[in-house]
Amino acid sequence: MAAIIEVRDLCHTYSVGTPFEHDAIKHMDFTVEKGEFLGVIGHTGSGKSTLIQHLNGLLKPTCGDVLLGGESIWKDKQTTRRARFRVGLVFQYPEYQLFEDTVFEDIAFGPKNMGLDAAQVKQRVLRAAEFAGVKASSLEKSPFDLSGGQKRRVAIAGVIAMEPEIVIFDEPTAGLDPAARASLLDNISTYQKATGATVLMVSHSMDDVAVMADRLLVLNEGQIEMLGTPAQIFAKAERLQSIGLTVPQVTSLFLRLKELGLPVDPATYTVDAALKQLLRLKGGA
Amino acid sequence: MGNAISVQDLHFSYPPQNGGAPYPVFDGLDVNIEEGSFVAVLGHNGSGKSTLAKHCNAILLPEGGSVQVFGMDTADEAQLLEIRRTVGMVFQNPDNQMVANVVEEDVAFAPENLGVPSEEIRKRVDDALKTVGMYDYRSHAPHLLSGGQKQRIAIAGVIAMQPRCIVLDEPTAMLDPHGREDVIRTIETLNRENGITVVLITHHMTEAIRADRVIVMQEGRILTDGTPKEVFTQVELLRSAGLEVPATTQIIYELNKAGLSLPLDALSTEECAHVLYETLKT
In this complex, do B254 and A275 lie within 8 Å of one another by their Cβ atoms? Predict the structure, then answer.
């Protein structure tokens, strides 16, 4: 696989020269492969949000660089502008960013700005609405008459209507109930499989990223603490706990079982994988 | 002990929007919250949880039936101030609940409005901040605090009114695991040590497990009501209501289907680990 995003020696300092000067990101290096699903985790203040705002040029690095397809996004103005379309960013609580008269117009805002003609815009809006799970019957409604969950889906459709190569979701399921959460994650997963887009998802929910992501990037105090597959990461549950993160409940259960002396793999993080191992033990017992 | 909140035959619907029909929520709901208890209310969006919460301190008034708060009828306007003082509310978004530029002024806002003498306010603010573990931050600016810290300031603002009951509507939904734990621990302290009745509306099963009693709502009705162990062992009922069960319960439930007979009420990680270990060790 080829690298699509390369983060090279990235630093970001807020409020330089004031008493509030703060190093949010300190010399970070990593690459994201084309088509992968990368989960980004870390406690509040670990630098997650600052990092993702660098990936489409909303924040300018204090030092270091961000490369998109091998090219610095800061090469010239056009490249920076292009990066904003190539990398779609879905902020936390994106439902507060809706502003148009109708859902259709809101989703169409991005594609229109890209200079597409009306037919292309319409095609993209319908496709994005479907991916994001926006009901077709809602398209002519005011976005402000929708439920919170539907509003969030409209905001997500607005980003994917630009057909970005990379989509970054910042806490997409925050505040949703379990059924809505599962359904939205399912939409994101379907979208990625259908389009081959690269997806980054920032989350506090270990249970969500554990199931969805190919690899996890764990941040702590502006630095990379770990980068690896969920199994590799959750095998280091104690280190995660020491930096203020929790592990999925299944993982903490299996850590305890291992401690008690059962021959189980403590890097287990899904109920299905847990059952497989326990049933094997039961068969052997 | 008596009831902190007593809801009898509650009827309520939201007024029509854009010329549509009214949106009915409750069609004869009965529920009592005992004084001094810690009750978690679960249910998916639209089940009526928040609407119920807003009836607990007269933000919403019944269309039919009644809501009594420590014996006061919420429909009695003469008692409105006393009701609001008796039942404090904490909402989901901490940013919408901050009114001042300094933490201690924010906490003092409610007692100031209640006309409490200033010496007494000083004491109440200090006590409230100590209770939520935020005393060291009393002269900080609220907007520079983390979500969990802001939510504890919001709770301090409520307890400075010295309410007998606090209703929290998804207070941890916007917080990270750390902030969530801090807030839940604060709520437990208020209930166990200060004897304040707590009604916690949440989506998180791990939080509901810590309550004395869990009420599951669906479409304006009570689907099930009991201790956490009684409620979470009803795996199929909860799933049908669009709710998740804890991973521990899921594992035991599936193993029992495969022929084991393990107690479904081993809810905590520790209990579940021991049950599994005892059964599977060789």
Answer: yes
Q: Residues of A at the B interface (Cβ-Cβ below 8 Å)?
A: 43-45, 145, 147-149, 174-180, 204, 207, 244-246, 248-250, 252-253, 256-257, 260-262, 271, 274-275, 278-279, 281-282, 284-285
Question: Could you give phi then psi for residue A177, rounded to 5 degrees?
Answer: -80, 165
Could you please state the CATH topology (level 3) that the domain comprising A1-90+164-230 is classified under: Rossmann fold (3.40.50)
Comparing CB atoms, the residue among B148, B203, B273 nearest residue A260 is B273
User: CA dihedral in degrees (B156, B159, B165, B166; nearest 10)?
Assistant: -20
Q: Do the beta carbons of residue B137 and residue B130 sit within 8 Å?
A: no
Which residues, in sequence order, are CB contacts of A25 under 8 Å at separation 6+?
Answer: A10, A11, A12, A47, A50, A51, A54, A222, A223
ipTM of the complex: 0.72
CA distance A107 to chain B (A): 23
pTM (2 d.p.):
0.81
pLDDT tens across B169-178, in order?
999 887 777 7
Q: Which residue in the set B244, B247, B260 is minimally distant from A282, CB to CB? A: B260
Helix (H) or strand (E) holding A13: strand A3-14
Looking at the DSSP bridge assignments, the partners of residue B5 are B33, B69
pLDDT digits (tens, 9 = 90+) for A30-57: 999 999 999 999 887 788 989 999 999 9
Q: How close is the nearest chain A Cα to the Cα of B81, in Å?
A: 31
- pLDDT tens per residue, range A139-180: 999 998 888 888 999 999 999 999 999 999 999 988 787 788
Tokens of A171: 């806490």
Give chain B's domains with CATH numbers: 3-245 (3.40.50.300)
* Nearest to A38, CA basis, from A161, A156, A131, A168: A168
CA distance A8 to chain B (A): 28
